[in-house]
Amino acid sequence: MIYFDNAATTLHKPKAVADAVTSAVNGLASPGRGGYAPANAASEIAYECRTLAAKYFNVLSPENVVFTFNATHGLNIAINALSKRGGKTVISGYEHNAVFRPVAASGAAVTIARGGLFSHREVIQAFDQALTRDTRLCVVNHVSNVFGFVQPIEKIAEMCRDRKIALIIDASQSAGVIEVDFEATGAEFIAMPGHKGLYGPQGSGLLLCRDPDNATPLLYGGSGSNSKLVDMPPDLPDRLEAGTFNMPGIAGLYEGLKFVVSEPRILRHESNVLNYVADGLALNPQIKLFRNSAPGLQSGVFSFIIQGMDCEAVADKLSERGIAVRAGQHCAPQAHMSAGTDGTGTVRASFSAFNTLAEAEEFVDAIGEIAG
C-alpha cells in the first residue's frame, strides 16, 4: 500500500517504536504505583520521555510535560481550564473540531478570525481585528490539517502577549515537522498527538503546560501521589494525569521522539514529495490544487479537487489501486468555509519521512487515470 494519510496517523513507524511497545506490554507496570522493578522501569521511561520532550520543545521543566491520550484530550484540558464564560474566545478560520467543539461547548462567545488561505498578511489582519479588549483566550492551530497552511503563529503569539490574552496552540500537524518553541510563544498550553509527526503509537499525546495555577483537571482520580488529598495534587504533572498511564504508548512515543530528534530534515523531505506530486497534478486542467510553494507557507499536507468528481469517489478509486488518502471535510468544516471548499470537501494527500518519490510518481499516474 502507498500510504498518503499521514496527517491522520503516521502508519509507518521506526522499528524501535513497535519494539518499545511490545517490550512495555510484556515488561512495564504502572509508574508511581510500586517500588518493584517493572514499576521503577516504567517511571524511568516516563521521565526520560518527558525530559526529551521538554528539551525538544523548549519547556523549562520536564514536570510541565503532561501525558495525554491524544491532542483532543490535551486541547479539552486546556480549553476547559482557560475558556471563561463572559469573556470572548478567538480561534482561527482553520481549526479542527478538536478546537471548535470544546470552545463552543465552553459557553464563551466565539469569534473566528478568518484570513485567506496561504496569506499570512490576511490572517494577521484578521487576528488584529478579532483580539479585542474583551478577549480572554485565543486558540489557534499551527498548521491546517486540511491544507498544510502554516499559520503565522509567532505573530499571533506576539499579539496575544502584548494584549495579555491567554494562548493555546494546537500543534497536531506541526510537532515533529516544524519547530515548536514553547517558551518563545509564551503560550499557556501547547497540545500535540503522539501518533502523527512524532511517530508514536495511537493513544499517546503531550500537553505542554506553563502555569500549574491554570492547570484545572479535566479528569479526577488516582495519581500515585498525595493520596489523602480530596482534590488532585497541586503540582504538575500529577494534577492533570489521573489514572493508569498508557505505558506502551509512552514507551513508543519516547522512541518516536528520539527518531524525530535525529532526523532534522523531515519537513524538507515531505516538501520534496509534495512538490513532485503537485507539479505532476498541475499539468491536468481538470485538477484544482490548494498549494503554495512560497517558503514557510505549507507543510507536507495538501488538498486537491478533480473538477466534476466527488472527492469520496476519488478516494475510493485510489483505494482500489492500493493508495490511501483521505477525502471529505477532514473534521475541519471551519477550514473549508475559510477556503471556499465547504460544498465539496477535498482529497487530501499527506506525507511522512517514509514516503518516496517513486510512490509520488505512482500516485500522479493513478490520479491521471482517474481524472481522464
What's the gist of this structure?
By secondary structure, the protein is an alpha/beta fold. The chain is 38% helix and 16% strand.
Protein architecture, described:
The structure is a single chain. With 372 residues, the chain is α/β, with parallel strands linked by helices. The chain folds into 2 domains: 2-10 and 264-371, Aspartate Aminotransferase, domain 1 (Alpha-Beta Complex), CATH 3.90.1150.10; 15-262, Type I PLP-dependent aspartate aminotransferase-like (Major domain) (Aspartate Aminotransferase, domain 2), CATH 3.40.640.10. The protein contains 12 helices and 13 strands. It has helices spanning 15-27, 37-56, 71-82, 97-105, 120-130, 153-162, 182-185, 247-262, 266-281, 311-320, 333-339, 357-371; strands at residues 2-3, 65-68, 88-92, 109-113, 135-141, 166-170, 189-193, 205-209, 287-290, 301-306, 323-324, 326-328, 346-350. Helix 6 (153-162) links the parallel strand 5 and strand 6.
